[in-house]
Amino acid sequence: MSTEQKDEMSFLDHLEELRWHLIRSALAVLIVSVVAFVCKRFIFAILFAPKEGSFVTYRFFCRMGHFFGFESDFCTEHLPFIIQSRTMAGQFSAHIWTSIWAGVIVAFPYILYEVWRFIAPALYENERRLARGFILVASALFFVGVLFGYYLITPLSINFLGTYSVSPEVTNNIDIDSYFSVVRSSVISSGIVFELPIIIYFLTKLGVVTPAFLRKYRRHALIVVLIIAAIITPPDVASQIIVSIPIMLLYEASILISAYIARKESREQTVESKA
């Protein structure tokens, strides 16, 4: 459909177009979810791995502790808690919802593609040429965030919360929904946070933020980052610092992106004024 045809579309036509983009996105999620549902053993082996003492993150922090000469709480074969299902449909429900969220994560690039197909006709030709790069970069950042959440935030959270005890009289028997909620929130929230450079790119294009604004409020951003880290990590300072560092690096990268966009638009305006 050409740009001129898009411009002539009525409000209802736009809604119909949006409906088909949503349907195709939902079908992509459904297909991946069905595959994930069938590959139950593989999916749940990944999800339960962070509760084992042999998980790669625990081994790394254990070795780091030995390197600096102190005993680390990460040096353990098994975490002192068990996962249980206390409802008849508990395991089946966890299987269904885990498959759906796996579908959302894996199909994320295609969802971005459908979003871009919907909004691209309203953009200028040079902006539409950025579609391929936008989908690639946004997807890469999301998956890096997902891996960051899985290999760092998830094990830190599980290790802290799963071993925390107020009294020897209380044992940690974790419900399956509670366990998956920690894993899911850690992974999804990290994936979204890692989209910060993309968000800043579009906000700069829209004129909402500028490089000067981002630099001016860098200290305020640090406080926001620490708050985000406190929300998505267990309440200990070491974990919050570990998580805050890459988020602040993303913020600094966002400043560079914003500055590049601002310089590019300034040059274009200068060329247009001279023409």
Automatic annotation (TrEMBL):
Listed GO MF terms: proton motive force dependent protein transmembrane transporter activity
Membrane topology listed for this record: Multi-pass membrane protein
Q: Name one GO cellular component term.
A: TAT protein transport complex
Q: Does the keyword Protein transport apply?
A: yes
Intracellular or extracellular location(s)? Cell membrane; Membrane
- Biological process, per Gene Ontology: intracellular protein transmembrane transport; protein transport by the Tat complex
Main location as per UniProt: membrane
Q: Which InterPro entries match?
A: TatC (IPR002033)
A Pfam match is: TatC
The alphabetized UniProt keywords are: Cell membrane, Membrane, Protein transport, Translocation, Transmembrane, Transmembrane helix, Transport
Q: Where does the sequence pass through the membrane? A: 21-49, 94-113, 134-153, 187-208, 220-235, 241-262
Q: In UniProt terms, what function does this protein have? A: Part of the twin-arginine translocation (Tat) system that transports large folded proteins containing a characteristic twin-arginine motif in their signal peptide across membranes.
Similarity-based family: Belongs to the TatC family.
Q: Which NCBIfam families would you find in this protein's record?
A: tatC
The subunit field of the Swiss-Prot or TrEMBL record says:
Forms a complex with TatA.
Q: Can you name this protein? A: Sec-independent protein translocase protein TatC
